[in-house]
LuxR family transcriptional regulator (Planobispora siamensis), 777 residues
Amino acid sequence: MARPPRRPGNLPAEATSFIGRRRELAAVRRRLAEARLVSLVGPGGVGKTRLALRAAGDLGRGFPGGAWLVELAEIRDSALVGDAVMAALDLRSQTAAGPSAVLAAYLRDKRLLLVVDNCEHLLAATARLVAEMMRAAPGVRVIATSREPLSAPGEHVVPVPPLDLPAPPIDPAASPLDPPLPPPAAGLRRNEAVMLFTERAAAASGTFELTAANQAAVAGLCRRLDGLPLAIELAAVRTRVLSAEQILDRLDDRFGLLTGGVTALPRHQTLRTTIDWSHDLLDPAEQVLLRRLCVFAGRFTLEDVEAVCAQEGLPALDPLASLVDKSLVMKEDAGDLACYRLHETMREYAALRLREAGEEEALGRRFADHYTARCLRAAPQVRRRLAGWLDWMDLEIDNVRAVLRGCVTRDGAARGMNLVYAIGYYWITRAPSEGVRWAGELLACEGAGPAERARAAFVRGFLAVLQSDAASAGPALEEAVTGAGEAGLPSLLAQSLSLASMAASMSGDRTAAGRLGERARAVVEGLDDDAAVLMFLQSRALNGLFEGDLDAVAEAAAEGVRLGRETGDLYSLGMMLLNLGSARLIAGALDEAGPLLTEALRVAHRIDDRVGQYVLLDALGCVAAGSGRARPAALLMGAAETVRTEAGASVLPFLPPLLARAGEAARAELGAAAFEEEYAAGRRLSRDAAIGLALGGPAPPAGTQEGAPEETPEETPLGRRQAEVARLIAEGLSNRQIGERLFISEHTVDSHVRSIMNKLGFNSRAQIAAWTASSGP
């Protein structure tokens, strides 16, 4: 039996059941049918995110490009909204044009649904970017969640009210002094607020049931909490130790104290009061830890909590575990590492408590010191441990960004420049445009010495070279050379001169390139520094490619490959393999070029270097065409175009002649029409599928396209790739190990795991493993 097509996207699996909201879901469907931007607007804690995700999950099957979640809660800088959208779509901005241009190029022919969550603190930037995306991409629809409308062109607003409340029972004949009648049981069980409380209480306590004895208290609780889902869920957790009647009594006391027992609280005060109540039930250590956790801008680990929050003898593990149990802190897993985060409403509450305790400034310093120290401590070994370090940076980048923003705004330019330099490989492999922005902002600040300025200018110049922006690279590297010389930093001086030589060669100034290269050689010869030597060899190899001197390329790149292997420098090894393989390809030595380029692609895949991936897919397409394998050649060249667009990269100068010859050879073998068909099929391949093909995997059947239905046994709801992932989970492999086994990224594995849980109704890897063992996908 054919299964439905696999749908792309990154929507998280629902960890808990979805209750009610039929009217609101219908409203979203209607509005999205006639409008391209629908904003779900309501107070904090009302359930906007859950509603948006459920709507997107239901509607996603109508979008070939899938449904994608963009989370803005942890973004504090309006300049990073575009970066957040690209990260959600798994894109990179490796061009000087920036995120908006990359998004416009990528989305232009896509039909997909974006859920942009928690926009209220970035309204103007979000509205501007959404408008730009919708102008560039007619097939894109957006669901936004916010406490107020975006006020963007074409926006349709769907208010998100609290859940329906159970109606209080009325007996016209009763005296006001008589006790209230219990509500009708049948109607109560259908009430959305009561359903939510009952289900969450049962999950929390394991024994809770709605009965005739407690139904009046449950109905009263839901009314008292004004139908706010977050407040109801927090109260439901307390059924582990209190009855519904006891919870209501305690809330009645608190609410009555605040209102004099006369009027209802406004909804924002209802939520604040409920959180206050939950907070007051914590022991002192838990209260201190909760308020201190707000200092983290994004996800955090137990190690981070111990370093930043657990001071003055405050324990970390037990209070943190207790806060998770009480649903005040959310636990997430990133690969093999447990990490945590605060709900945005809880973060705001904790920040108020931190301010009231007078700890805001001290915690901010500890936070900045912790992340700065970790980055600076790791920097000398990053080149040798790049893959694992990048995994850590992917987890912690929002916290590092918060430190950098503080450096820009609070006279911390020297610290910020050192930090930008220490995490340079993150900008190089993940976010060149963002790195350019941080380096530029810091260089515009006063108060840093020549050493710090030289480091920031070096990063700025390095990233400009990667972006093929020689005009910006030149001045930045000139400042880096001057500053490194003044500060007595010979390794940085040598690397800056080598990069400056590359920038000059890119701009066509061979005289300057040669002069700068000789200056770099003179400095390198007096050093025993692997980083300086590798950068010099890279400049020689790249300049040789630009100048057509294949002997120079081969000599420099061969030595670079040897040194890259010896030092464990994955980034340099990948670049040198690419240089050497390209030289062999240009010379027509396909038997030598193929293995070198294949190994380079494995490295680029491991560290997720998108520019390297695009170049290598093109180069291996040329190898395939020259070897008489026309169909794989067309597929790989088509896939390379898509990967290049997703990275916002420009075409390297040595590639066009090679691609032209490869295209002619493949067309001659396939015929023009068949070549164009296969090239188009290659463009539709996912990046992981294209890399698998380039590394020797099978080509998709002729005439098929990525995402087409595949045959699968009737008894399993999982697709082929999901079945593979499930089987490897059952074998005990981590997401990273599964990615290495299947030649896909850890991010993609995580998406598959969430999809498997969603399809099977599971919430743990153990359940997947047990299901696999019993039924076997």
In short: Residues 185-280 form one domain.
